[in-house]
Specification:
By secondary structure, the protein is of the alpha/beta class. About 40% of the residues lie in helices and about 20% in strands. Strands 2-1-3-5-7-13 form a six-stranded parallel β-sheet, sandwiched between helices. Strands 9-8-10-11-12-14 form a six-stranded mixed β-sheet, sandwiched between helices. The longest helix has 16 residues. The radius of gyration is 21 Å and the shape is globular. InterPro entries: HTH_LacI (IPR000843), LacI/GalR-like_sensor (IPR046335), Lambda_DNA-bd_dom_sf (IPR010982), Peripla_BP_I (IPR028082). It holds the Pfam family LacI.
Amino acid sequence: MDIKDIAKLSQVSVSTVSRVINNHPDVKYETRERILEVIKQTNYIPNNSARILKKNNDKSIGILVKGVYNPFFSEMVKIMSDKIKQANYTMILQYYDQKSKEDVNALITFIKEKKLQGVICLGGDFTDISDDNFKGLDVSVVLTSVTNISKTAFNKFSSIGIEDEKSAYKATEYLIKNGHRTILLIIGSYEDIGAGKLRVDGYRQALNNYGLCYDEELVAIGDYSFDKAYNATIDILKNRKDITAIFAISDIMAIGAAKAVINSGYRIGDDISIMGFDGMEMGKYYNPSITTIYQPKTKMANMSVELLLSLMNKKGKNKHITLDTKLVEGESCKPI
């Protein structure tokens, strides 16, 4: 299965499939969704690196991304690409399945197959990574915005991330302080043991500290997608007329929920406030703009490349860095 097969099954050109894979904006929504569905059904994993592999990988940096379509990571990849190019290195970009539970194996396989000396991982669960995984490998690794990392192999890799629980607490507290008491939470899935779980913990801790009860009926599964967040919100709003605010743990799900609020006959902000998480460009230009927890993606991306280059050039040691987030007020939240 290659990109030509995906194009044929999707009834579009190869260039259109390429634009979707690389998250270019100039593709119609319906076309993009059709191509992504074909990619999902065929388990196709894009790999634009074959041409690059003919070169000497001493000057190549691998970027391993979990999930074919993740707009937040796509924004970071663009920043990293520019930074890598400025350093006169070549980027090898590879995606793998969002639902995979073999994140460590995906990383080690990527390193061995591409003969890489440096890799940045975007997303993934690396709780089980150990010293044994790096036997026989002379490689520098930076784990960026991953869900979990091993506590026993800290000297083998670096990491850059945020405090997810603290940030989610901040988002929930903001809604509570604006008078909201019935807050719908939209999560990725119940199986999420990493960042998603920490954000749920932050939400629950804020409720508890302000004397509010956690209600399982006010938790919806959005699967980090527009359509599933939309459908979940539509269903809940049919039965729960008391909801005054929604906290979605990603901006993608927040935008899906916003559409559902409008189509359910409510006004965003005036009737139901909406809080997102990530600080993506699309949220800023949505109408009304989405109030969100902003992750410093530019700083995170640039620091990842800088840290990796220092490790590859033996000029630095492994570090574990936590960056601050900030709540950015849009027009989607109002006090009641």
